[in-house]
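Q: What would this complex look like in 3D?
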Amino acid sequence: MAATGAFRERLFSAWVEIRENLGRSTLQALGVMLGVASVLGGFSISDSQRRRSDELFAKIGGFDKLNVQPSEAIKDGTQPSALQNANLGLRSDDASRGEKLDMKAVQGVSVQKFARARVRSPFADQDRQITGVAADYLAVNGYTLDKGRLFSSQDVETAAPVCVLGYEAVSVFFPTGEALNQVIRVGDIPVTVVGVLKEKVFRFRDSQGNMFAWRNKLVALPATLVAGRMEGDAYHRLDRVVFKIPDINVIEKFSESLSAVLKSSHRQQEDFRIDDIAKRVRKRRSQGDVYNLVFMLSGILSLVGGGMVNVNIQLATLKERVREVGVKMAIGASGREVFKEFMTEALLLTGLGGFVGFFIGVAFSKVITTVLEVPLYMDPKSFVWAFLLALVFGFLFAIYPAWKASRLSPMEALRYE
Amino acid sequence: MSAIIETSGLTKVFGANGNAVHALRGIDMVVEKGEFVALIGPSGSGKSTLMAILGCLDSPTAGRYALDGQAVESLSGGALARIRNEKVGFVFQSYNLLPKASILRNVELPLLYAGVSRKERRRRAMEMLEKVGIPEKANVLPAQLSGGQKQRVAIARALANRPALLLADEPTGALDSKTGAEVLGLFKELHRQGNAVMLVTHDPHIAAMAERKVELCDGLILGPEAAAA
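A: Here is my prediction, written as structure tokens for the whole assembly.
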């Protein structure tokens, strides 16, 4: 049959039928248009949001981190036992133990020690948060060097009096911009500025403030300097150890073995807390899937609603077209042929409606994302989904009227007034 | 000559039980190939029902019917569609052209259903339009034609698949006498070329042009059916 161009003829007749009844056809296709637009719009809004927050997480350096912080071993307010008191908390040994646990998975270890101190330069004198860092802190947290150098391992080992300043800290303590090799006083300790960092910027929406403003306030010293000389802590206890693990799938397993290793080296006390950021990300991801499901459902509902309207109109117009069907049957169209003709028409209408729906959906997403100030991102998958759904429902709802038409008795159809 | 139509004891009952209407009560008739038969009779005599059954648009309630030697009374819907397509050409009083399709497409349609290739369809449809004398109207829509021209198109469409039997139900009923005569002339011409023509009419003048008249009354064939005009 294909060689005779029967399909082409059917398509052409269907097109003529649609063109001749533009108003009615538009009405019939409305459900498909809205359904496709709704699925597409919903998907792309949630995809755009998700991509935006993925970006945020990536910029913070989010997914791929496992945080370890010290925590109280006793939870019920009783006095700590001697065993618990004997523990020294989180130390750099813990960081290196963790790193050795899986050298392949762990890409970097960042170590932090917090303190507050007066920071003085020839231009400013402020009470500041001081971050004692070691190992890969700056790299793991996504800082990039603007001028000078980062800490060497020797700086950390010897607790050298050096510091690296964030963008904002530079502008406060050295408004002239000439910070490198200058000396500032952190508490009582004069330290030399050896490195200056680039500004970190991230805005969730274009009109919002820089969410990373606080990161630019960094005043970083070697952790050993902060713990040893500023706090007088001979054990060099840490406030936070972060393991960077790029492969999100091994984090959970790593977290478990890390917990076991730390516990065994902490006299079986859980005086630390492991915070798996990836777990939160996975949760957020599945929330995104829920939104997609909701949007798909609303799309399906409009497709079902539109489909029923379509069936109604199709059945009503079938009454007008009974005679036409009768004539076609009289000159040799089988019920099958009539069925195919009606299906072709309905599917062509679905296709055209879906096509228009694409544009409505894209426009709709564009408007919403503009309002939300999120860059529009459309996953090709959403187009496929929207079109598949439209096609499936278009097909399902076309069957009944087409079947009805195909079952007409040629005689009665011809006599129909 | 062999028979194109051969029926025996054809009956058709509409409705059931209490209010059954017996449209045909036992028709025995034979029409030879190449014959020109007029089917006459008053309204309600069963002419249209008989035409529908002879044209395979409807199935008889009982009786036997062989069209061109093939028994058709128990064929399925699809097989009947095929026979309508290949063996029967219909011409209706109200033309029944598809209003949204061009004249050429109207004439091509039976060929399309028969699975004829596009090129061949076009060629044969044009040939038929030439035969009925309006090839120049190939690309216009039916609404732009006069009644007589529309009926010519309908005849061209009926002939497109070179059917063995041409059935016409009051083909001149909606035409004025002059164009009616022209259309009838066309039927006579087709008959001369060897087509079997069966024509339903009220008009005794038209019936007189046929080789043979068959008169129906209350679902039965009246009198000596072979009475020649």
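A: To summarize the key features: The beta strands of chain A are 65-70, 108-120, 125-135, 145-148, 162-165, 183-186, 189-197, 219-222, 240-244, 272-276. The longest helix of chain A spans residues 277-330.
Q: Very helpful, thank you.
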